[in-house]
Specification:
The complex is a heterodimer of chains A (206) and B (360). Helix content of chain A is 34%, strand content 11%. Chain A is built from 7 helices and 5 strands; from the N terminus they run ααααβαββαββα. Chain A has helices at 5-15, 23-37, 44-47, 50-75, 122-126, 163-167, 194-198, and strands at 106-107, 132-138, 146-154, 173-174, 191-192. Chain B is 62% helix and 6% strand. In chain B, helix 4 packs antiparallel against helix 5. Classes of the chains: A alpha+beta (206), B mainly alpha (360). The interface between A and B is medium-sized, with 19 and 15 residues.
C-alpha cells in the first residue's frame, strides 16, 4: 500500500490520459477510482482517535499557555512588543492599511483653498459606475479655464476602482483618506458634494 | 432544628456555588476559546466604564434572554414544551447534592459532612439524575412540533443511552477497587497510599483506562462538541430549535451545569475529591518523614480548595476538548460508543476483577 510520490505521479499520469469527448468526466471518475484503490486503511492506533486528539490538544494548549502568559505579562507592562492576539480593537484601533489601498475620495485644494479640479470631465467620463457628476463653470482667473461649480460623487454607486484618480491630469482627486467605513442611514446622505469632498478629514492610521 | 438549618445552608450553598460556576463558564468558554485561537474575546460590555475582562457579558446575555419573546410554536404541546427546559436544568443541578465538597467539619461537638445529601448510594443517585437529564432533551424534541427538534431529541436519546452504559461500566472498576458507592466513603478510601506511601491511591492511578473511558463518555454526556450531535448547529440546530428567550437560555445553562457536574464527578471519582496528597486530618505527613502540623480548619479549607481546583482543571480539559476537536459523524459516534468504548470498559472490568482476585 505504501507508494512513493514518484510512483503515485506515474500512476496518476497513466490514469489521467483522458482525451476526446467526456474527457473531464472520465478524469473525475478515474480520480475517484484511483482514490478508492489507493485509500490507506487507518491503523488500529489511529482508529482510537488518540493520536489526533492528543496532537490537537497539544496544538491548542500551546497557543493557550503562550497567549495567557503574554496577556498576564502585558498587564505588568512586560513584552509589550510581542502580541498575544491578532485582534485589532476596531473603531478605536483601526487596522493598518496598505499604502496603496483605495479609500474614500477627497478633492485637493489650491493654495487659496479653491479646488484644484479644472472640470475637464475626465473622471466623469471614465467612471464605470457613473457616480461622478460635475457642473462646470468659468473661472475668473484667465489662466484657469474652468472650475467645478458642483462636484457630486455618489459613494452608494462608487466601485472604488480608482480610475478617476488615474485619469486626473491635475492630481485633483485622490483616494487616500484612509476612510473605509462610509456608513450612512440613507442613500441620499451617501451622495457627497464638493464641500464634503473638500473637507479636512481625520485620517486613519496608515 | 439547627441540623435542618445547617443542611439547608449546605444545600443552598452548594447549588448557588455550582450555579455561579456554570454561569461563569459562559465567560470562561468565550475567553478560553479566544486565547486558544489568538483572539481577545468578548470585552465590550461595561458598567460605568468598568469592563472587568468582559465578565459583564454574562449579565448582558441574561438580560437579553429575559427580554426576548417567549415563542411557542403552533401545534406544540404547551405543557411539555414549557416543562422540558426546567427538567434539563433541575436534573443537572440535583446531581450536585451527592457530591462531597469536603471532609467532616467539626465545630465544637457537632460533626458536619460537607456533602448536601450524604446518602450511601450517592453514585447511583447521581447516575439516575444524569439519566433523567435525557428526558429534558427528548421531551423538548417531542413537544416542539418540528422535525428538526424531533431529530435532535432522538439523536440525543440514542447518544446518551450509548454513552451512559460506557460511563456506568467505566466506574465499575472504581467501585470494585474501593468497594463502595458512597461518594464520601469513596473519597476517604482514596486517601490511602501505594508504593510505600509515595503515590496517593487516587482513581486515576489505579484505574487509568477507566479514567479515559469516563472522560470520553462524560464529554458525550454534556452534549458539547465533539459530541454535539443532538444540537448539530450546522444542520438541524437541535432539540431546542423552537425555543427562544430564557427557555433557550436554560438549555444552554443546563449544558454548562452538566459540564460542571461531570467535572466534579471526575474530580471525586478519579482525583481523590477533596483529598490533598499527603494531607492527613492533623497536617502533612510527607513520605520522606517530614511532618507539618495544621489546625483542623486549615486542613478543611485546603480540602475544599483542592476540590474546586480539581473541578477547574477538569472544566479546563473539557473546554479545551470542546474547542479543539471537530464534531464526529453520527456513525463514527455510534461506532466509538458501542464498538470501542463499551468493549474497552468491559475489558477493564474483567482485568480489574482478575487483578483484585490475584492480589487478595
Amino acid at each position: 500500500m505504501e507508494n512513493t510520490t514518484a510512483q503515485r505521479r506515474q500512476e496518476l499520469e497513466k490514469y489521467f490520459d483522458a482525451k476526446g469527448p467526456f474527457g473531464l468526466l472520465r478524469v473525475a471518475q478515474m480520480k475517484r477510482a484511483w482514490k478508492q484503490k489507493n485509500r490507506r486503511e487507518l491503523t488500529w492506533w489511529e482508529n482510537t482517535y488518540l493520536p489526533t486528539l492528543i496532537g490537537g490538544l497539544w496544538g491548542t494548549s500551546k497557543h493557550f499557555f503562550r497567549n495567557l502568559t503574554l496577556h498576564i505579562l502585558h498587564v505588568f507592562g512586560l513584552y509589550k512588543d510581542t502580541r498575544a492576539a491578532v485582534t485589532y480593537q476596531y473603531p478605536e484601533q483601526p487596522r493598518p492599511l496598505a499604502a496603496r489601498t483605495r479609500t474614500r475620495h477627497r478633492l485637493m485644494k489650491r493654495e487659496d483653498g479653491s479646488p484644484r479640479c479644472v472640470a475637464c470631465m475626465m473622471c466623469e467620463t471614465v467612471c464605470p459606475a457613473r457616480c461622478i457628476a460635475i457642473t462646470a463653470a468659468e473661472h475668473p482667473d484667465p489662466n484657469i479655464e474652468k472650475y467645478p461649480a458642483e462636484f457630486i460623487l455618489d459613494l452608494g454607486k462608487c466601485v472604488y476602482c480608482g480610475f478617476c484618480v488615474e485619469v486626473c491630469p491635475e492630481d485633483a482627486i485622490r483616494m487616500d483618506t484612509g476612510i473605509i467605513d462610509t456608513a450612512e442611514y440613507s442613500r441620499a446622505s451617501m451622495i457627497y458634494d464638493k464641500k464634503r469632498l473638500m473637507a479636512d478629514v481625520v485620517r486613519h492610521a496608515k | 432544628m439547627s441540623d435542618i438549618l445547617i443542611k439547608l445552608a449546605l444545600a443552598s450553598g452548594t447549588i448557588i456555588t455550582m450555579f455561579s460556576i456554570a454561569g461563569l463558564l459562559t465567560w470562561v468558554e468565550r475567553k478560553q476559546s479566544a486565547v486558544m485561537q489568538d483572539r481577545i474575546g468578548a470585552n465590550r460590555a461595561s458598567i460605568f466604564g468598568f469592563k472587568a475582562l468582559g465578565l459583564f457579558h454574562a449579565i448582558a446575555d441574561v438580560l437579553k434572554m429575559l427580554s426576548k419573546e417567549e415563542f411557542i410554536p403552533k401545534g406544540a404541546n404547551k405543557f411539555l414544551f414549557n416543562l422540558a427546559p426546567y427538567l434539563s436544568v433541575v436534573f443537572a443541578l440535583v446531581g450536585f447534592a451527592a457530591i462531597p465538597i469536603g471532609n467532616q467539619l467539626i465545630i465544637g461537638d457537632r460533626v458536619i459532612e460537607l456533602q448536601a445529601a450524604n446518602i450511601n448510594v450517592a453514585l447511583l443517585f447521581i447516575f439516575a439524575m444524569m439519566s433523567m437529564g435525557i428526558y429534558g432533551v427528548v421531551i423538548a424534541g417531542f413537544s416542539s412540533n418540528s422535525n428538526y427538534a424531533f431529530l435532535g431529541g432522538m439523536r440525543g436519546a440514542a447518544q446518551m443511552i450509548a454513552y451512559e452504559i460506557t460511563m456506568g461500566a467505566a466506574i465499575m472498576g472504581i467501585i470494585m477497587v474501593f468497594n463502595t458507592i458512597d461518594l464520601q466513603a469513596l473519597v476517604r478510601a482514596q486517601g490511602a497510599y501505594m508504593f510505600g506511601g509515595w503515590l496517593p491511591k487516587w482513581g486515576v492511578f489505579v484505574q487509568p483506562l477507566a479514567f479515559f473511558l469516563f472522560l470520553t463518555a462524560a464529554t458525550a454526556e454534556t452534549k458539547r462538541t465533539p459530541f454535539d450531535l443532538p444540537e448539530g448547529e450546522s444542520e438541524i440546530i437541535g432539540y431546542f430549535v423552537e425555543y427562544s428567550g430564557m427557555k433557550f437560555g436554560m438549555f444552554f445553562l443546563a449544558d454548562l451545569v452538566e459540564t460542571v457536574l461531570v467535572a466534579a464527578l471526575m474530580a471525586t471519582l478519579f482525583m481523590g475529591g477533596w483529598q490533598v496528597a499527603y494531607l492527613h486530618p492533623d497536617g502533612f505527613h510527607f513520605p520522606w518523614g517530614a511532618t507539618v502540623a495544621l489546625p483542623h480548619l486549615t486542613v478543611m479549607g485546603l480540602g475544599v480548595l483542592s476540590f474546586f481546583l480539581k473541578v477547574s482543571l477538569f472544566i479546563w480539559i473539557l473546554m479545551a476538548i470542546r474547542w479543539t476537536l471537530p464534531r464526529f459523524r453520527y456513525d463514527q459516534l455510534m461506532r466509538l460508543g458501542w464498538k470501542i468504548l463499551l468493549p474497552a470498559s468491559l475489558f477493564n472490568i474483567a482485568i480489574t476483577a482478575i487483578v483484585i482476585v490475584l492480589l487478595s
